[in-house]
Structure formats: C-alpha cells, structure tokens
Design goal:
The radius of gyration is 14 Å and the shape is globular. It is 17% helix and 56% strand. Strands 3-4-5 form a 3-stranded antiparallel sheet, with helices on one face. The chain is built from 1 helix and 5 strands, in the order E-E-H-E-E-E. With 81 residues, it is α+β, with helices and mostly antiparallel strands.
Length: 81
C-alpha cells in the first residue's frame, strides 16, 4: 500500500486528508478492519457507513462520519473507504 497525506491548518481548525492506494487481496475485510479500528479507538460512528458505487467502478465504497473526543476537543472525521 502507498499512503499519501496532506494537512491544512487555520488557527485551531485543521483539515487532514489521508489516502491509500494499491492492491488489496480482500477489500471487504480491509473495509471491516478500517472501520473497526476507528471504533476501537474510543470514537463513535455517528453516521453509519453506507454503500456508494462511484460511476465507472465495480467495487463499492463505504462512507460515514466518525466522532471522537480527545483532550477536551471534538474530532469529526467524514470518511470513505
């Protein structure tokens, strides 16, 4: 897997983009483990994952919203995997 990340910060707010690409032998297991990892870190899926099928693709993408409180701050992360 190849990881690409980017961060923009303005004052106390920031936007972080993390992307990975490459060959995945079991895509559904990778999705399951990614979402499980977010939940096991102490956060909550406030918008449960839903299946999306981008035009021109065969595999589904799952999107949702994850929220976690950390050091008194609320961390909201929309995601697609």
């Amino acid at each position: 897997m190849t990881t690409v990340d980017w961060q923009y910060q303005s004052g106390a707010k920031s936007l972080v983009l993390l992307s990975m690409y490459g060959s995945v032998s079991d895509p559904m297991e990778a999705v399951k483990q990614t979402i499980h990892g977010m939940e096991s870190s102490g956060g909550e899926l406030v918008v449960p994952k839903r299946e999306e099928r981008p035009h021109g693709t065969e595999e589904p993408v799952y999107c949702g919203v994850f929220v976690k409180r950390q050091m008194g701050q609320k961390f909201t992360a929309p995601f697609c995997t």
